[in-house]
Amino acid sequence: MNQSTLPLEGVRVIEFTHMVMGPTCGMILADLGAEVIKIEPPGGDKTRNLPGLGIGFFRSFNRNKKSVVIDINTEEGREAAIDLIGECDVLLENFRPGLMAKFGLDYDTLSKAHPKLIYVSHKGFLPGPYEKRLALDEVVQMMGGLAYMTGPAGRPLRAGTSVNDIMGGMFGAIGVLAALRERDLTGRGQEVQSALFENCVFLSAQHMQQYAMTREAPPPMPSRVSAWSVYDVFTLAEGEQLFIGAVSDKQFVTLCDVLERPELAQEPGFANNAMRVAVRPHLLERLGEILAHHRADELAPKLEAAGIPYAPIMRPEQLLDDPHLKASGGLVPMQTDDGGTTDVVLLPLTMGGRRPGVRQPLARVGEHTDEVLGQLRKNVTA
User: Fold this and answer.
1) How far apart are the C-alpha atoms of 367 and 382, rounded to whole Å?
2) pLDDT tens, 97-114?
3) How far apart, in whole angstroms, are the C-alpha atoms of residue 168 and residue 171?
């Protein structure tokens, strides 16, 4: 990635989205250099003002975009939107099935006048028997096997973040990149669809294949039979918790040395991983008694030096001060739409050693309306 350019510079995107899935797709494209124009209704996207667990949605998934207010409920607004779409390479939307068609902003309608348009719909389900259902991340986690595999037996549990919404936006962005490449070859755009349910099933695919190969139903993760004897969360001194994984015989011996209990590795019942797995509850109880006398801040550097996989149990608020995220450039300041500043998480990739970052403040509602529509009027009358 050239120091002065970004890979999607020159690509223009118009975004009709809200909440998480569609905005994630737009943000990825914007971070990679596309000009992303977010269309908001009068008063702004309601996602800006969500309470509770939704309060961080807008700031997390809408950076590097322009904000243009257009009321597509009016004929004038629809005409402005259609004129603007004609100057864009990509359209993103994630509204309920049929809504964009109601306004004449569906792919079948728009592609007649704009055959090069790449049109990305983020839905609950791809075409099929479920396609008209409304879906939420929670709904598809229950339907797609993820909640069953996450919670204890009989207690399906959704993942603690919007995994399908975020990954659905990622797959939408992947579709855009592929469609842009295909358009270079054919000269034509196409419709791309990304869906929550199919995304969640993709996450569960390994467990589906496990059953197809063994004809044994995979148990939920809390009930799983681990392939490794030491692969668990342990409670240390002062109630601190640490995940420790020793996934080979060599690592088990090394762990025993770190804990200053080398004799544990010499016990006949612990001679190899298969034997240790057979008596895993007993082994974990023994290790738990030993680890209860170790402090996490003293043990962690010893585990790291010895090459033993480990992890502290971090809370999201603690990650705002994570030294690796800060030093690696993955957590950077962004000016917010109210004039303040917040640290935001960048895309989890580097390109040519560079992290695609924050290029502009978070847009205020309608901040770029005059700029974008003014230029549009000039182009229309030119």
Assistant:
1) 25
2) 899 999 999 999 999 999
3) 5
In the chain, list all ranges with CATH 3.40.50.10540: 12-204+322-381
pTM over 0.90: yes
CA angle 107, 108, 109 (to 5 degrees): 90
DSSP 3-state assignment of 312?
Answer: strand
Residue ranges, CATH 3.30.1540.10, the chain: 226-315
CB 101 within 8 A of CB 125: no
User: What is 193-252 written as a DSSP string?
Assistant: EEEHHHHHHHHTHHHHHHHHHHSSPPPPGGG---SSSEEEEEE-GGG-EEEEEE-SHHHH
How many Cβ atoms sit within 10 Å of the Cβ of residue 189? 22
The CATH code belonging to domain 226-315 is 3.30.1540.10
Q: What is the per-residue pLDDT across 256-289, written as a single tens digit (0 to 9) for each?
A: 999 999 999 999 999 999 999 999 999 999 999 9
Q: In CATH, what number does 12-204+322-381 get?
A: 3.40.50.10540
Helix (H) or strand (E) holding 290: helix 280-291
For residue 90, which of 22, 215, 189, 156 has the smallest C-alpha distance? Answer: 189
